[in-house]
Specification:
The protein has 47 helices and 14 strands. It is of the alpha/beta class. Helix 39 runs antiparallel to helix 40 (803-819). The longest helix is centred in the N-terminal third of the chain and has 21 residues, at 141-161.
């Protein structure tokens, strides 16, 4: 694995050339941990050093949970299980990978420049310093010393390169640099520039340092004043063209730019490094507003080379109807007249050699003509730069593209500001949940938000929200001065839609069938194209035109909700919506039935894929029921079974099972529906439903030839009979044998794992350590059987109070979940707290987080948390306190299978043997009088 970490100018990371998106860093502590380790020799530090740097106000034991959390979220963000490894008191960053850091590369390049001494080596080193170290962490003590060192190294290189303007910009109080800059102006005969530079220097030193000009400054001024004043020589005209490019009057901003500071900085940086920059994005994203702000910003930050603002030629191409009109529009905007003013080559010859910024606004309907003109301008000279706004790039050589979309969290601020302008200062508040909801449903698109805010002149916020599904007709009339295509949301999308080819338009219509995101396979399933490669080309065209959003990390596509509604309307107008819905339904059903049902039931990866497509899967399930395709509906439900187990609340699964059982199913379909019913009941703590479902399923299984059905029945029968663990052991041995006979190794491992748990509940210990190691080390992928094997092995470590082993197993389980795209749930968080208990570390913050997550998932985990307190008392050998807490929690835990197992093992295999029967009975009776709420409050939970 190759990892590159960028710390200069801004933080960034690539893993095997795959960028880690900023949104992946869900906790601030995760990137902080990565940055800290990246700056260390060999990218590792002792745990106490990490804690001192990142959490200096906490004791080591208090910071330990934060360190584990930061490490976990770093692994999640990077998608690498070994991104951060904690072992033997050392925290290491990608210990097995080839890690490069731009800070090291810059310092090596600087050393090479010192050794070589040539200007090229110095420039190469300077190119590796895009900005200061971690500017977002300016006030972190662990960055300050190195940041200063790197800054000084950069200044030394600027001085060696003779780049005095950059040196003065970086350190204005460097007198030597200031004098060298003035000296450079004098050597090139730039009298006025030298005098202006000395004047600024004099004023700055008086204001900041309280000193008068030094003798060197006075001497330089005398030399500058002694130079003759050079007359201004008019530039030659380009033949066949009259006029000179006039300074464009950029329209004054009427409102402030909101939520685009990072975009504005990015565009400014691109304009410094590239001669043509395109701001691309969907209609209504604010491309023109951003481009105008960038042009104004360019004037404000104009370099000394021009002694004045650069000329900006603003060309609004929206009204231009054909390619021939592009040159005419540019000539008119530039104030150029004459016979050649409408020819690309003549215009290019006039504009290319001049320091102008050609701003071509709204090029998407004239891409080819605009690209031809831009190519000609760039070829004609080195001075001109071009800034383009378009819904798709021009694709000219040297083009840099900056895409914009949603405003994200700044959407609410924009809505409030525009709403206040329409409806008064008390119209809405940014923190109002309805405002946040509205902006999210409008995809954070500035135009949609502004049009929505305009409706508050005659609608209340709740009324506006209630009508939002009809937004394409509702959101009109807000910005009449911007032209018809920006005065209605539908017109904005219609503008892009008309630019599509017939085939692209047909595919776009069909994408309206998807209620949420989708992958390429799904697109090919609903497309009316026989050639898969043709679909890829058409989809690429829609992405380029900003009508479809591509997520390269997840390899998925989506339509912004407003655009999706437009596509759905167009699909309905074609009269083919039922046909396309059926194509999507068949695609989901076919994918759900790719493997035998028992393997689908066991597959975490299938569940993860179905989870990514959940809205599409849910629609396919409902349509299958409605159209009587009941076997398809069962297959689709089975594809989600592992997801329901991971979600732990099971509410969604219960609804699906209930819907299926209301239909007249075949014996095979009813069997698998009953298995799902037992599965949901197992996790939801409903032993009566679990037992009745599996008894009926057992009666049906005899007439089926599905692989593994008998083994599966035995597994559930054992789970229903765990109060008699000896009986459960026999059933699970039968299940493992039957799974072997039908060559279902995953199902066999599942039965063996549950058998190991049942054996431990009987008090048996012999051979279980080896069995646990065998199950955990099996090459079984990251499917459901491995999840249960890790859980069973964790129970062995729990009873043995082996904290390090427990943490290792929990980390492995969480890694598997993430690898399959499933998410952390309350139970995994709860077991992480137990691992901290077993390791003698601070566990209450993690337990508190687990309890909160359980509440978010619709489950009360209060009794489980009291069980964790009992386990903590047992790990301290406070057996009486442990028994008392067990007494307080045991009644509430008897219904849930997993919690019942945890309770039984802690109670009967860990605590009860340490007390006499009378002592244990007395303590538990005392605990039964206590409330879980009171105990949790007492513990600070």
């Amino acid at each position: 694995m190759r990892v590159h970490i960028r710390l200069l100018g801004a933080f960034g990371m690539t893993v095997d050339e795959r960028p880690v998106p900023p949104a992946a860093w869900r906790r601030r502590s995760a990137p902080s941990l990565v940055k800290l380790l990246a700056l260390q020799p060999h990218h590792r530090l002792r745990r106490e050093q990490v804690s001192d740097a990142l959490w200096p106000d906490l004791l080591l034991e208090e910071s330990a949970p934060r360190l584990h959390t930061a490490a976990h979220y770093a692994r999640v963000a990077t998608g690498a299980p070994d991104a951060v490894v904690l072992s033997a008191g050392v925290v290491a960053l990608f210990p097995e990978a080839d890690v490069s850091v731009d800070v090291d590369e810059f310092l090596r390049a600087a050393e090479q420049a010192d050794a070589a001494g040539g200007s090229q080596a110095v420039e190469r080193a300077l190119a590796r310093y895009p900005g200061p170290l971690l500017p977002e962490d300016l006030y972190e003590p662990w960055t300050e010393q190195l940041r200063d060192r790197l800054r000084l190294r950069h200044l030394e290189l600027l001085r060696a390169a003779g780049r005095f303007e950059d040196l003065v910009a970086a350190d204005p109080l460097d007198e030597e640099a200031q004098l060298s800059l003035a000296e450079s102006h004098l050597e090139h005969g730039r009298r006025q520039r030298a005098l202006e530079s000395l004047d600024r220097m004099t004023e700055l030193f008086r204001r900041e340092l309280g000193v008068e000009p030094s003798p060197s400054m006075v001497a330089l001024r005398r030399r500058a004043e002694a130079l003759p004043v050079r007359p201004v020589v008019p530039e030659q005209r380009v033949p066949a063209v009259s006029g000179t490019p006039r300074r464009a009057r950029l329209p004054a901003p009427r409102t402030r730019l909101i939520g685009r500071d990072a975009d504005l900085a990015a565009v400014a940086d691109l304009l410094q490094r590239h001669r043509v920059v395109t701001i691309a994005g969907p209609g209504g994203a604010g491309k023109s507003t951003l481009a105008l702000a960038a042009a104004r910003d360019l004037r404000v930050r104009a370099s000394d080379e021009t002694r004045s603002d650069p000329d900006v030629v603003l060309v609004e191409l929206a009204p231009v109807r054909d390619g021939a009109g592009v040159a005419r529009a540019v000539a008119e905007a530039a104030g150029i007249e004459g016979a050649g003013a409408s020819e690309d080559t003549a215009l290019a010859a006039h504009l290319g050699p001049r320091p102008v910024l050609l701003l071509l606004d709204n090029c998407e309907h004239l891409v080819e003509a605009s690209a031809a003109l831009v190519d000609a301008v760039l070829d004609a000279g080195e001075e001109a730069r071009v800034l383009v706004t378009s819904r798709e790039p021009l694709r000219v050589d040297g083009e840099a593209v900056h895409r914009i979309g949603s405003l994200g969290q700044d959407s609410a601020q924009l809505f409030v500001e525009r709403a206040v302008a329409v409806a008064g200062p008390d119209a809405v508040k940014a923190e109002d949940p309805d405002v946040v909801d509205l902006c999210a449903r409008l995809d954070g698109l500035p135009l949609a938000i502004e049009l929505a805010a305009a409706q508050l002149g005659h609608l209340s916020l709740p009324e506006l929200l209630a009508r939002l599904d009809d937004r394409l007709t509702l959101l009109v009339g807000g910005r009449p001065r911007t032209g018809a295509r920006h005065s209605a949301l539908a017109a904005t999308i219609e503008w892009s839609y008309r630019l599509l080819s017939d085939r692209s338009r047909a595919l776009f219509d069909r994408l309206g069938v998807f209620p949420a995101s989708f992958d390429l396979d799904a697109v090919q399933a609903v497309a009316d194209e026989s050639e898969p490669t043709a679909v890829i080309g058409l989809l690429r065209d829609l992405v380029a035109k900003s009508l479809v959003v591509h997520d390269p990390v997840r390899h998925r596509y989506r339509l912004l909700e407003t655009i999706r509604l437009f596509a759905a309307q167009r699909l309905a107008e074609t009269g083919r919506d039922d046909e396309v819905v059926e194509l999507l339904r068949r695609h989901v059903a076919s994918r759900s039935s790719e493997t035998p049902r028992v393997r689908t039931w066991m597959s975490a990866s299938t569940a993860a894929r179905s989870r990514d497509d959940l809205d599409n899967v849910r629609m396919a399930f409902e349509m299958s029921l409605r159209r009587g395709e009941l076997s398809d509906a069962v297959d689709i439900a089975l594809s989600l079974s592992t997801r329901w187990r991971n979600a732990v609340s099971y509410a969604d699964g219960r609804r699906w099972v209930t819907a299926l059982l209301e239909h007249d199913l075949t014996p095979r379909d009813r069997f698998w529906t009953l298995v799902l019913s037992a599965d949901v009941a197992l996790g939801a703590g409903d032993p009566r439903t679990m037992r009745s479902s599996i008894e009926e399923a057992a009666a049906l299984s005899a007439g089926l030839d599905d692989s593994g059905t008998s083994a599966l029945v035995d597994v559930y029968a054992a789970m229903a009979d765990l109060t008699r663990p000896g009986r459960a052991v026999d059933l699970l041995e039968d299940a493992a044998r039957r799974a072997r006979e039908v060559d279902e190794p995953g199902l066999e491992r599942l039965a063996r794992a549950f058998r190991m748990v049942a054996l431990r509940m009987t008090g048996e210990r012999e051979g279980l350590t080896a069995e646990a190691e065998s199950l955990v080390s099996a090459d079984s992928g990251a499917e459901y059987d491995r999840y249960i094997c890790l859980w069973a092995a964790s129970l062995m470590a729990l009873v043995d109070r082996d904290g390090p082993r427990l943490r290792q197993l929990m980390d492995a389980q969480l890694t598997d979940l993430m690898a399959n795209g499933l998410r952390e749930n309350w139970l995994t968080m709860y077991w992480q707290a137990l691992a901290l208990v077993g390791g003698g570390e601070e566990y209450l913050p993690q337990l508190r987080r687990a309890r909160r997550r359980a509440e978010e998932e619709g489950r009360s985990a209060d009794a489980d948390c009291v069980l964790a307190l009992a386990y903590a008392a047992a790990c301290r050998a406070d057996w009486a306190r442990a028994a008392t807490l067990l007494g307080a929690s045991h009644t509430a835990l008897l219904r849930d299978t997993a919690s019942f197992v945890h309770l039984t093992l802690v109670r009967d295999q860990l605590v009860r043997p340490r007390l006499t029967a009378a002592e244990f009975e007395e303590c538990t009776r005392r605990g039964e009088l206590l409330t879980t709420t009171g105990l949790l409050e007492e513990a600070g939970l």
